[in-house]
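Researcher: I'd like a candidate sequence for this fold, 322 residues long. If you have to choose between options at a position, lean toward the conservative one.
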């Protein structure tokens, strides 16, 4: 079971000085190229969304999560170069946003086809991130929800699938939880700092059906460290995944819980991300896809992603481009 790294177009901007910047993917691209030369990853690069085929695929994939009116607004809005149109206090639409989200659509489509070809382990490095995006609006740096789109498309195309979504970003994946609510044979698990932005993710919405499906919010306080997280992983997350027995595991992989990250209040180190990856690899399922969410200190982001891949990854071939 090979692991595949997908790198989407890095053309979206929220404006100068914004923490969710193109530097994030530039840093990870440098990491992936270095790792590809030493053997541990296989790199697929998606940078050229330019035909109606990509637009059709984008709508097909994301309409299960967002309204067509909202998606059309994102794709059709003409944004002059150098201009940022604010969609919420933290999230902008730029001249390059259309290309970026179409590229994300290509990457998600590739993941869905890879699943049909036998599954495996994949990591999608894309921006903007997605787990705060709601059905009809952008939120918290996010335009469209890639994780929820993967889960919905798998669920629709494979009636026997059992999809688990784990979100370990320091911020609660409110958009993902909203999108997956009521979906049959689906489990949503989130660990997040609480109380904290976006103010959701208490335990009041938790639900455990007989087969383990439902919602498991695990709010954790400011100052949570590696040992605290290890305990939650061992005592809460893995037992629930084992009970649910997923065929597919989708991960909202946010690395802003690192102690050096400017936007979180946890004290995690790279070591816990390696532990998370290794633990998830032990879950018996046909397909594991991780999708980049937060992580805003560039050094910590690179080290954390490398550590996560060391836990969940497999040996690789050389990179190739599409």
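Model: Candidate sequence:
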């Amino acid at each position: 079971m090979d692991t595949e790294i997908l790198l989407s177009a890095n053309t979206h901007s929220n404006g100068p000085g914004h923490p969710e910047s193109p530097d994030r993917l530039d840093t990870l691209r440098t990491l992936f190229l270095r790792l590809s030369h030493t053997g541990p990853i296989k790199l697929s690069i998606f940078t050229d969304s330019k035909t109606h085929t990509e637009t059709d695929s984008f709508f097909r994939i994301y309409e299960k999560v967002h309204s067509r009116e909202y998606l059309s607004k994102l794709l059709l809005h003409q944004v002059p170069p150098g201009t940022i149109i604010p969609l919420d206090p933290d999230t902008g639409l730029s001249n390059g946003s259309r290309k970026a989200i179409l590229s994300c659509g290509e990457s998600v489509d590739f993941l869905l086809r890879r699943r049909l070809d036998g599954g495996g382990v994949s990591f999608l490095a894309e921006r903007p991130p997605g787990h705060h995006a709601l059905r009809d609006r952008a939120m918290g740096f996010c335009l469209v929800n890639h994780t929820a789109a993967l889960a919905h498309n798998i669920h629709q195309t494979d009636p026997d699938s059992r999809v688990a979504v784990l979100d370990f970003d320091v911020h609660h994946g409110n958009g993902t939880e909203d999108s997956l609510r009521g979906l049959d044979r689906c489990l949503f698990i989130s660990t997040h700092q609480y109380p904290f932005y976006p103010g959701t993710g208490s335990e009041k919405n938790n639900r455990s059906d007989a087969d383990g499906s439902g919602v498991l919010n695990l709010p954790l306080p400011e100052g949570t460290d590696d040992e605290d997280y290890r305990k939650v992983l061992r005592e809460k997350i893995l037992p629930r995944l084992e009970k649910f027995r997923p065929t597919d595991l989708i991960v909202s992989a946010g690395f802003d819980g690192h102690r050096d990250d400017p936007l979180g209040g946890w004290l995690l180190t790279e070591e816990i991300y390696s532990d998370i990856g290794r633990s998830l690899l032990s879950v018996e399922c046909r397909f594991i896809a991780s999708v980049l969410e937060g992580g805003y200190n560039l050094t910590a982001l690179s080290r954390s992603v490398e550590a996560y891949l060391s836990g969940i990854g497999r040996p690789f071939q050389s990179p190739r481009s599409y």
